[in-house]
Specification:
The protein is of the alpha+beta class. The protein has two domains: about 425 residues, no CATH class; about 50 residues, no CATH class. The protein is built from eleven helices and 24 strands. Strands 1-19-20-21-23 form a five-stranded mixed sheet. It has a five-stranded mixed sheet with strand order 7-6-5-2-8, covered by helices on one side. Helix 2 packs across helix 3 and helix 9 runs parallel beside helix 11. The chain starts with a strand and ends with a helix. The N terminus is likely disordered.
């Protein structure tokens, strides 16, 4: 694989100490922050992504947003852009960065662009053009450019505080060893065949607070969990939207709140030991409120981030697609010949795969048969962007939905104390399972149009992230 690495080093990003910040005011070594957001809620009837079947939206539970927060010192800046959508394609990121460049924004290489993975948001995939509305995508891209440019115009002196809560009570590993010796994703509540979860849960919730004029004006949280609690056909930002509202209500004003989703490809909110209904808007509200309260509680414990350098490392990361086993293709052809297509009602999800729903099985069989002609021998290249503030904080972008073990390994081996993996970032490559997961089974190993990363992708992704982090740490 050929990697072209471009490194941008932002010196003087923060004062050497906050005493220095007070003395220098808005001098050349002072940090500035700016942020903005815009509503990207779709019109009624536009199909929602997240499941195997499209669902024309029937109304709005809460608004979707594009959000941007930028940091600047002197002439250099970098930051985050998030969308309350299921994914963001690499092509869309490229379009947005090109539009920004044409508008005079010179810092596109310093942006980590990601999605919150809301499953009650419109299709934005260039691979599902029959369902992705070009008019909506034009609005989304234009509003994103306006949001970033407004954030740039909103720069004002700022200080940062950082902390982490080791408390994630709403996350569960959704892959379970079953009594038949195989792994099943979302096997169903109170399933007597469950033996134990296949893997761990990352319980860390990172919190970064931005302060201006003596008050907290923006909060960024890094949380590991799937954003799929609602179902049905109503638009919602899911629990990240309710988290933001909880924090705003707790502090008594509408500050900027952003969620960056960590490695949660094999994590969700379903507690299989109960029969509670966990697919409803009330669940999004419960989880969002709970996460919001954790963030609010952590604010009292945050420590000043006293550093002097922001490093940005951008590198190309190639992901080859899988070569499917011949038996998998033959079995899929046999199923298609045996199971006729029929109309279905209700959401088609991974639970249907676990239950053996014939139309869900047919859905995947069609994609297995189509996959070799579409993806065999091909690869896609994604940007892996690493932002590091001194030796105490870093964020690294990861495309698609990596398993949580990938994030845990990056955190453990990172040379920077508080490292945040940011997933669904700079493009979508599908699920990124561990190599052993392909032998164990489960929904996430099924090939899809978004791409099915080769079996060694997890290990290579960890190394690419660590490479960026090591380079950033040297600054």
């Amino acid at each position: 694989m050929k990697n072209s690495t471009v490194r941008f080093v932002f010196t003087g990003f923060l004062c050497l100490s906050f005493m220095g910040f007070a003395e220098n005011g808005a001098g050349e070594n002072a940090l500035e922050a700016g942020f903005s957001q815009a509503v990207i809620t779709p019109w009624r009837g536009l199909s929602l992504a997240g499941y195997f079947n499209p669902r024309p939206n029937e109304g709005v539970l809460d608004d979707l947003h594009v959000k941007c927060i930028l940091f600047r010192s002197g002439d250099t800046c970098g930051g985050f852009v998030t969308f309350d959508t299921c994914k963001i394609e690499a092509e869309t990121v490229e379009n947005i960065l090109l539009r920004l460049k044409r508008s005079g924004f010179r810092h596109g290489n310093g942006l980590i662009v990601s999605a919150t993975h809301a499953h009650t948001a419109p299709y934005t995939s260039t691979k599902r053009m029959k369902l992705t509305d070009p008019g909506y995508m034009e609005i989304l891209e234009k509003k994103t450019v306006e949001t970033v440019l407004l954030a740039e115009r909103n720069f004002a002196p700022a200080t940062l505080r950082l902390g982490v809560a080791n408390n994630n009570p709403y996350a569960y590993n959704r892959r379970y060893w079953m009594k038949n010796g195989k792994v099943t994703t979302n096997p169903g509540k109170l399933n007597p065949e469950i033996v134990k979860p296949e893997g761990p849960v990352d319980c860390d919730i990172g919190v970064l607070a931005v302060e201006q004029n003596g008050r907290t004006v923006a909060i960024i949280a890094n949380i590991v969990n799937h954003t799929d609690t609602i179902g049905l056909s109503l638009v919602s930002a899911d629990w990240p939207g309710r988290l933001a509202r909880t924090v705003q209500n707790g502090l008594g004003y509408d500050l900027f709140v952003m969620t960056l989703v960590g490695c949660s490809g094999n994590i969700n909110h379903f507690d299989t030991s109960t029969d509670a209904n966990q697919t409803q808007y009330a669940e999004a509200c419960r989880i969002g409120k709970g996460y919001g309260e954790i963030v609010l509680g952590q604010l009292k414990k945050l420590e000043s981030l006293e550093v002097g350098t922001l490093s940005v490392v951008s590198q190309d990361f190639a992901i080859p697609f899988r070569v499917l086993p011949k038996k998998m293709i033959e079995d899929a052809k046999e199923l298609l010949a045996r199971v006729p297509a029929r109309a279905t009602t209700g959401d088609q999800t991974s639970e249907g795969l676990a239950k053996g729903d014939d139309q869900v099985l047919r859905y995947f069989a069609e994609r297995i048969v189509d996959y070799p002609s579409s993806f065999k021998g091909k690869e896609r290249v994604y940007k892996v962007v690493t932002l590091a503030i001194g030796d105490r904080f870093a964020a690294t972008s990861l495309p698609g939905e990596p398993f949580t073990e990938i994030g845990l390994e990056i955190k453990e081996k990172s040379p920077i104390k508080n490292t945040w993996p940011v997933t669904l970032a700079m493009g979508y490559c599908g699920y990124v399972p561990l190599a052993v997961s392909f032998e164990n089974g489960g929904y996430e190993i099924q090939p899809c149009k978004g791409g099915s990363p080769r079996e060694d992708t997890a290990a290579r992704m960890v190394e690419a992230s660590l490479k960026g982090l090591r380079q950033a740490a040297k600054r």
